[in-house]
Amino acid sequence: MSEPKMPAGAELPDWTLLPPILHRHAPAGRSALLPALLEVQALYGHVPQPAAEQIAHALATPLADVHGVVEFYSLLYNEPIGQTVVRVCTDPSCALRGGDALLAAACRHAGVEEGETTPDCTLTVERSPCLGHCNAGVAVNLSSGLPARTTTYVQASPESLADLLAGKGQTPADRGSEDFVGGDLRVITPLCGRGRRTTLGEYEAAGGMQALRKALASLQPEQVVERVRQSELLGRGGAAFPTGMKWESAAKAAATPKYFVVNADESEPGTFKDRILLEGDPCRVLEGALLGAYAIGASRIYLYLRGEYPLALERVEAALAELRQAGYLGEAILGSTYDVDVEVRSGAGAYICGEETALFESIEGKRGFPRIKPPFPTTQGLFGQPTAINNVETLAQIPYIVLHGPAAFQELGTAESTGPKLLCVSGDIARPGLYEIGFGVTLRHLVENLAGGVTGGALQALLVGGAAGTFATPAELETPITFQGLRAAGLTLGSGAVMVFNDQRDLRDLLRRLGRFFAHESCGKCYPCQLGTQRQFEILSRLAEKRLLPGDSERLREIGWTMSDASLCGLGQTAASALFSAMKRWPELFEPKGAA
Amino acid sequence: MSEVTLTIDGRPVTVAAETTLLQAAAQLQIEIPTICYHEACTPNAICRMCVVEVEKQRLLQPACVAQVREGMVVQTRSERVERSRRTLLELLDSAVDLSDAPDIQAQIVDYAARPARFPEAERRSPPVLDDNPMYIRDYAKCVLCWRCVQVCAEDAQYTFALSFEGRGFETQIGTFFEQPMPATSCVFCGQCVGVCPSGALKPRREWLLEQGKTADDILEQTRAERRRSRRSSPA
Fold first, then answer.
1. Tens-digit pLDDT profile for residues B74-118
2. Would the pTM of this model clear 0.95, i.e. be above it?
3. Which of A35, A313, A358, B23 pairs as cysteine with A370 (C-beta 3.0–4.6 A)?
4. How far apart are alpha carbons A481 and A116 in whole angstroms?
5. Could you tell me the sign of the dihedral formed by the alpha carbons of B195, B197, B201, B205, in that order?
């Protein structure tokens, strides 16, 4: 290993800060590895080797494994980095707003290449995958000081770089930078987009927590499951699995204890709905989680929150404190016989941890490698125990279903795609933001009526479902937004991201960004994805540079087929999805000759 | 234990319920190619060379872990399966030095994988790590089958000297903060060398012989190294 760089005049690390952290985390053993590493890094700026050794001993975890975990996560470092770390988003929507120009400006300012640290260790500049602020790019995640404080800024530009570095940027908590929330319905978002967190008291005043009170007072757990099953709610994270079926299976599993997990590792490029829900109205999501935990008989809820969402973390913690104070958490909640508590776990920069089994591995203190399925989470999930895991938006739907009944929920959507849905609209669009609709409206209604239409030119393409999604052309705007309608048109709803590109935009460049994203985020476990995402990115780079080699289209197809057919998890299985949809809709882009 | 009957490549076979497709196929003398699989290790379905096509399943299934079910209809060499295996071999060949992996070389021939299928491809070619008297680590030849990590941990030795560096294409087997082997918990049991399928882990003597050293050279070099280490180690 090279000599560690130390900032000029830096003092020796103060190791007396370490024992209290170790003492607090030791009882949880290896499961506390990520929290311990994140705390240590916040204190020392990185995870120094002596600290890693002590963490390993305190948590009874092999040294090599501790190092392997640090190596896996983008936000953990095993050597000194800058006192300030700037991470600039250059994924599709931020790229349209000049993400690359800002990244270049930051590199010029620091005098380094991307991914590097200045020799005096004051500044590190990194290219970041999507930061979940696509509605207000360019997004910049900035960590600074010891202990490190992390903030994600929005609407950043090369001109605002100096202000950003001084910690004076805009966040969605600032006046004028609030997330825009609109749509035909406001069933799950009435209290979002106000630039602040809805308190428990405000949520209660608006009818919140009534569903939980009703369930604890008058519904058996199986009756809660039954309501959700009858609602035909399909999971909103991307896989569209029936929530009721999942809960029923976890409820019926014999083994105890059981766990309930909130998947808040939102990282799909173009997606920011879960962030807005957690920042604006966290109690609604937590009420849904409490109902889910009650329904399956879990006494412990883990909320795994994306590491790049510092504002959501702060607000979820604040909401939990209020809930605890008001008797919604802990022993015998609301005077019932039911005990439950919630633990928040922070991610550390890994898209793959949104995959449910990789997320379990991460909570267990391991690298985020997806597991082989079966066994499925409902029988052997977190810590090998029966587990139900749901996306944030899915859980935000639950209070309404429990309180108003399945029929009322179904009326908000279509017969097969029931209830409301959140869509994240960004890119070349007049009003980028979060839109709540009832299933069944068309893409055209969303893009033209609700979001105000395309800006900067005519519509060229929509990317629906994020990086793992599919492209739609202007001819497909009449497609109804339902799981079935989109599937029939060869599209996927995915996470609900809709990125809009006008006819001035270079789709080849966009495809390279998607390729880079998957190559960066592949965990490296199975061969098709570990090798295929890298080769796909290399060829898509040639595509963007308009120097495709003869046979490259065929190579892309073979890689894509193999990743789709043979990868271990959903990441590899969908890593060629957008590319394939582009090849089908715009074959001319992939002709070596036409590339001139 | 109950039994199930399934069809593999058009031939019926009856096996115990807990059997994997790989084992069931073996009963019919149908060989399914594998890279990461090893009898002594927990199967992880990493390499995906063993994928087969199962009727009514959307995705190809890894035979090393997929279990048999009554009435299953399995194709072990369908066009889709062949395409995936050939592409996997071409991808692997584009990234890793397979010159010491005879089994994979044979698979390349069997599946007509094209050499240099991916031009301008970044290869993984880190330098050889020669940091102990027993074995060398040449990760340019590593196919990331995980066997060494597994036998070093719960699958055999419980030594836990090995983990991973990086992720995705950049993944490499490594030690705590890249320490040389003698500084780790390694007990030099040699099991990792024994299960390595691609010559990435190799007895040091064998490696020195390959470098053109004679047996006498090696003896002299080993003695000199031992003298140096005795002088430098604390009394």
1. 999 999 999 999 999 999 999 999 999 999 999 999 999 999 999
2. yes
3. A358
4. 43
5. positive
